Amino acid sequence: MTFESNVPLEDLPEIATTMIATLKAESLVHTVRAKVQRIVPRVGDADTTSGRNPNTLRVVLAPASAQDVQGLVPGLRFTGYVDTVTGVAGTPRLVSMGSTRTR
User: d(Cα 5, Cα 37) in Å, to the nearest integer?
Assistant: First the structure.
């Protein structure tokens, strides 16, 4: 299982692989921790028919623990943030993930 979210381009320099994200869903009592696995590059022009914001890139996160995602199903929607302190040295900041869904 993975999580996908669109992140504004201006926030991408703050995010690196292995940073930890904290995700919450209305239907869950606990939060889910996930690691930034990769940022998906956009190839070609923005697709205006997809409904995706052309000023964002997709971030893929992997669960930090199998226990966190036990019982989850694809399609669940989460909100959350990436804790930039968990990555390389820089200015600590929380980057909002907005709407995130399981795949």
Answer: 12
**Domains along the chain with CATH numbers:** 3-102 (2.40.30.170)
Q: Scanning the structure block, which residue is given the tokens 């893929």?
A: 60
Cβ-contact 23, 80 below 8 angstroms: yes
Alpha-carbon distance of 74 to 51, in angstroms, equals 20
Q: Are strands 56-63 and 32-40 parallel, antiparallel or unpaired?
A: antiparallel
Q: What pLDDT is recorded for position 74?
A: 87
For residue 29, how many other CB atoms are within 10 A of its CB? 6
What average pLDDT does the segment 41-69 reach? 76
Phi and psi at 27, nearest 5°, equal -85, -5
Say if residue 51's pLDDT is above 60.
Answer: no
Cβ atoms of 76 and 34 within 8 Å: the answer is no
The contacts of residue 69 (CB under 8 Å, 6+ apart) are 1, 32, 63, 102
Residue count (the chain): 103
Mean pLDDT of 14-35: 89
